[in-house]
Amino acid sequence: MIFEKPPAVIGHRGLGSGDRTPPGGASGPVAENTLPSLLAAVDAGLGWVEIDVTRTADDHLVLRHDPTVEGGDHIVDMPADASGLPLLTEIFDALPADVAVDVDVKTVLEDAVDAPSRRTGALLLPVLKREARRRRLLVTSFDPALLVFLRDELPDVPLGLLTWLRFPMWHAVPAAAGLNLQAIAVHTGSCGFEHPDSRLRPLDHCVDVAHQAGLDVIAWCPAADRAPDYVAAGVDAMVVNDVPGVLTALA
């Protein structure tokens, strides 16, 4: 079991995607994928946070969801110092050890040229080995090659396959099970209440089948008012943008 007391609420990129104002905060909004946003999510009562990680031209891992920075320059083409983005190692060092982290790995097109053991996967492996000794981790990615590499190198770190819209649950569940992963992380537009395809099985049925296959099910990013529906369907965790709203809805 990945989550001690499911359903876990995971702060999406910290307090949520975009600039978010911490509950009761008088200092103004904080940017996603930054230490202030992550700490604000913890202060709001979360034990799990999610971060997006990509690599730079000089082989550092930085926090960023999009492959580019403002202005359109690709992160993989610039050194870490020029990107202005926080380093993954710095974030881990600053986060309390009792904060669990979902590391969403954004591999780049250039990773197709070399095996994962030589590019993003190779950079990530020693960091994860260190962190796994002091905190709970989950690694998620859209890239199955990366996940298979990490599966073989880090058998004790749970891994999840990310899915998005046109790769819905009826494909994601067998794919993740076939790769011997521990979880699927499914966008709410790909499943259940918000998917436009009426042929889709009810979400609680999909979750039940995933559980039978040994998979935890993580929904991202449900609206606060729908969060209880996902809990009722049996999901193990939710990656959320509206942290206070979801916590209030679940309370």
Describe the structure in your own words.
With 251 residues, the chain is an alpha/beta fold. It has helices spanning 35-43, 80-83, 88-94, 120-132, 144-153, 169-178, 203-212, 227-232, 243-250, and strands at 8-11, 48-55, 61-63, 100-105, 137-141, 159-163, 183-187, 216-220, 237-240. It has an eight-stranded parallel barrel with strand order 1-2-4-5-6-7-8-9, surrounded by six helices. The model has no long low-confidence stretch (mean pLDDT 91).
Provide a count of the helices.
9
Q: Identify the overall geometry.
A: globular
> How much strand?
15-25%
Instruction: Please write the string of helix (H) and strand (E) elements.
Output: EHEEHHEHEHEHEHEHEH
- Structural class, from secondary structure content? alpha/beta
- State the end-to-end CA separation: 23 Å
User: Segments where pLDDT lies below 50 for 5+ residues?
Assistant: none
Report strand order across the widest sheet: 1-2-4-5-6-7-8-9
On the 0 to 100 scale, the average pLDDT is 91
List the quaternary state of the chains: single chain
Major β-sheet, in short?
Answer: 8 strands, parallel, barrel
Radius of gyration, taken over Cα atoms and rounded to an integer in Å = 17 Å
Tell me roughly what share of residues is in helical segments. 25-40%
Overall strand count: 9
